[in-house]
Amino acid sequence: MAEGENKPDQQKVVQFEHPFFKRMADIFFRLDERSGEAVAVVTLGEEHLVLPFAGLRREFNLDDGPDGQMLALLSKGLRYVKGLRIGDPLPPEIITRRASWRPDARHHQIAYHRLAMQLMGWLSGDEHIITNPEELLQVSGDPNFKRKINEAFGEAAEHLGLGRDNREKVIGYIADLTDELAYIEAMRDQFHLMQQMDAKIQHLRRLYGAQRSVLEVVDPVARLIERAVAEFTNQFEQADAQTGEIMAALKNIDAQKAYIQDMRDELHVRLLPWDELLDEWHRLPPKKTEWAENLLDRTYRFLAPRYMPVDEWAMMTKLAGAQVTLSSEGKVVKPQKPKTQGGMMEWM
């Protein structure tokens, strides 16, 4: 193998040439919670040094060359994972378009039965989308299901101009779409946890109706979570509508797969920061507790910069003395001025 021939493979893992990175044995790369920017975190004794990529590029002149390219790849890749270290593989989303995670067999089964029901609905002239997992999984117990879907495969092959006997081609198309839609179904489970979180928050809003100090927190949290649920509802409806007509999806299989992959990545990036919050709300008993009150406080800090109207959030940060820049969605995109606080140092 000629020298440098394996460089594309080398870029599939996190690695750097500059001596700085080799000296920092415990360097960790993640997105900053406040700004959303990619940063390197280095442990120095009891302190953590937070180094924005812009500062690393400027300090070590890394704009050009392999290290600058690696920082660019990391900036993209960190949207899909919670963190990376040197030697870790880069998320495949930015290399091959594959996902860095896998849905389980249940989600594959749900996705397959959804498409199968749509195909049988097309055959009967009553096509509609079923997204209820329980309803879809019940289909597998229908003794007539296999016969009906085999008939639908043959009719679909004929309709697509493949010939009725070439139903294996249609089976392959359905399998390909199933593999992609399984990711959407897995994230739909996370969305259901968000809906349950919403229901618990609305319940706590009623429980704390007479406690003004708590109500001042739970009221805005209840409004913000409703906005979040509405936004995710819209995204899932868009994803569902794209495969709402099964024959159109089968006729444009490559375009459909690419669309679902785009939606998969967008939903994954948006849902990833919710993981710990959704888990804690899932475990929280629906009653008055100190745990509930603390969780409401943390939930407000999580939701406000993401879902509060821009004007309101800008006013609040101004009153608090924070120096921030906001995106069109009200999300903080520039960190506060560097300072040392609680053992955390920041190098801009």
Number of helices: 14
Outline type: flat
Radius of gyration: 25 Å
The end-to-end distance, rounded to whole angstroms, is: 42 Å
Give me the side-by-side strand order of the main sheet.
Answer: 4-1-2-3-7
Task: Please provide the ordered H/E string of secondary-structure elements.
Answer: HHEEEHHEHHHHHHHHHHEEE
Structural class determined from secondary elements: alpha+beta
What percent of residues are in strands?
5-15%
Q: Which spans have pLDDT < 50 for at least 5 consecutive residues?
A: 1-10, 322-348
Tell me the number of structural domains. 2
Question: How would a textbook summarize the main sheet?
Answer: 5 strands, mixed
Mean pLDDT: 84
- Multimeric organization: single chain
The percentage helix is: 55-70%
Count of DSSP E strands? Answer: 7
How would you characterize the overall build of this protein?
With 348 residues, the chain is α+β, with helices and mostly antiparallel strands. The protein has 14 helices and seven strands. Strands 4-1-2-3-7 form a five-stranded mixed sheet. Strands 5-6 form a two-stranded antiparallel sheet. Helix 8 packs parallel to helix 11 and helix 8 (167-207) crosses helix 12 (275-283). The longest helix has 41 residues, at 167-207.
Sequence-ordered SSE layout with sheet pairings:
Elements: H1 7-10, H2 19-23, E1 28-31, E2 38-44, E3 47-52, H3 53-60, H4 66-77, E4 84-85, H5 105-124, H6 133-138, H7 145-159, H8 167-207, H9 212-242, H10 246-251, H11 253-271, H12 275-283, H13 290-307, H14 310-319, E5 325-326, E6 332-334, E7 344-346
Parallel strand pairs: 3-7
Antiparallel strand pairs: 1-2, 1-4, 2-3, 5-6
Helix pairs in contact: 5-7, 5-8, 7-8, 8-9, 8-11, 8-12, 9-11, 9-13
